[in-house]
UniProtKB/TrEMBL annotation:
<dbReference type="GO" id="GO:0055085">
    <property type="term" value="P:transmembrane transport"/>
</dbReference>
<keyword id="KW-0614">Plasmid</keyword>
<keyword id="KW-1003">Cell membrane</keyword>
<keyword id="KW-0812">Transmembrane</keyword>
<feature type="transmembrane region" description="Helical">
    <location>
        <begin position="260"/>
        <end position="283"/>
    </location>
</feature>
<feature type="domain" description="ABC transmembrane type-1">
    <location>
        <begin position="68"/>
        <end position="281"/>
    </location>
</feature>
<keyword id="KW-1133">Transmembrane helix</keyword>
<dbReference type="Pfam" id="PF00528">
    <property type="entry name" value="BPD_transp_1"/>
</dbReference>
<keyword id="KW-0813">Transport</keyword>
<keyword id="KW-0472">Membrane</keyword>
<feature type="transmembrane region" description="Helical">
    <location>
        <begin position="71"/>
        <end position="93"/>
    </location>
</feature>
<protein>
    <submittedName>
        <fullName>Multiple sugar transport system permease protein</fullName>
    </submittedName>
</protein>
<dbReference type="InterPro" id="IPR051393">
    <property type="entry name" value="ABC_transporter_permease"/>
</dbReference>
<feature type="transmembrane region" description="Helical">
    <location>
        <begin position="12"/>
        <end position="34"/>
    </location>
</feature>
<dbReference type="InterPro" id="IPR000515">
    <property type="entry name" value="MetI-like"/>
</dbReference>
<dbReference type="GO" id="GO:0005886">
    <property type="term" value="C:plasma membrane"/>
</dbReference>
<feature type="transmembrane region" description="Helical">
    <location>
        <begin position="200"/>
        <end position="225"/>
    </location>
</feature>
Length: 296
């Protein structure tokens, strides 16, 4: 056997545990979950197949419908808010402000926290007896209200606010890296033409940040689908079911209501939602890369 073939076989042998893990752990559990979603499993798995009955029951459940609606509202506001705030922070730091490194670290620090810590921080801030509300009221602003976690109409927006506070730093870093890679000649030409700074960022810089912002949007969207710990730490799904999300619905049915069949059906729907989000982004990235290669 030649040395090249031996190195190839050695590399394949070294990668075999990884491939085995992918097949057994990831693909295997996915297949197991899909199989259980067609059964009448309760506390333990069984092979009493009921076809699509669990899916029909799932979409006939008002709590699941509400969870999907909450996820859409949270996802749209969260991703859009992170992109806008992250871009604005990046544009501010791109002006070469003093203590830029300190500000960059400060803005990125919340992203290093877990969603549980973020939820607990904002739960305290919005606590009507211990948080910002009584503090500001003691200063003389008696009408100030910041008790969103106790309001059915505002609780979901409290989750959005906490999520944006954590996720905007990621967008800021990616956008700032993209801005620093833009040719300085474009700025010189804009100054000569007398174009305002804000117009340069909107009309010239922003279109060139498409790949960076698309990557950030993909990462944020993946986080939206599996949102669970932020909701649990901040509102526990309440008040009532005001902040119910699919991941919490799945966990409740699996571990509290012992309805394994319904929980796995919801998990499959959530998996298909992830695929529906990831595939278009990956396809768009593939087309853009192919066009760049053709242009070169």
């Amino acid at each position: 056997m030649s040395r090249g073939k031996w190195r190839l076989r050695a590399a394949q042998l070294a990668l075999s545990p990884t491939w085995l893990t992918v097949v057994l752990v990831y693909l295997g559990t996915m297949a197991w979950t899909v199989t259980l979603s067609f059964t009448n499993s309760r506390l333990l798995p069984n092979w009493d197949f009921v076809g699509l009955a669990q899916y029909a029951r799932l979409f006939g459940t008002a709590k699941w419908t509400l969870a999907l609606q909450n996820l859409v509202v949270f996802g749209v506001l969260y991703v859009a808010g992170c992109l806008v705030l992250g871009f604005l922070l990046a544009a501010a730091l791109d002006r070469r402000v003093r203590f830029e490194s300190a500000f960059r670290t400060l803005f990125l620090y919340p992203y290093a926290m877990s969603f549980v810590v973020t939820g607990l921080i904002w739960q305290w801030l919005m606590n009507p007896t211990l948080g910002l509300q009584p503090t500001v009221q003691d200063w003389g602003w008696a009408g100030f209200r910041f008790d969103w976690v106790t309001s059915r109409t505002m609780a979901l927006y409290a989750v959005v606010l906490a999520g944006i506070w954590q996720g905007a730093g990621l967008v800021m870093v990616l956008a700032l890296a993209g801005m620093r890679g833009i040719d300085a000649e474009q700025w010189r030409a804009a100054r000569i033409d007398g174009i305002p700074v804000w117009r340069v960022y909107l009309s010239i810089i922003l279109p060139q940040l498409g790949p960076a912002l698309a990557a950030a949007a993909t990462l944020l969207s993946m986080g939206v689908i599996k949102t669970y710990d932020l909701v649990i730490a901040l509102t526990k799904g309440g008040p009532g079911s005001a902040t119910e999300v699919p991941a919490k619905f799945i966990m409740d049915n699996m571990f509290q209501r012992q309805n394994l069949g319904l929980a796995t059906a919801a998990a499959v729907v959530l998996l298909l939602s992830v695929i529906a989000i990831v595939v278009p982004f990956r396809y768009a990235a593939y087309i853009m890369a192919k066009r760049r290669a053709g242009a070169l």
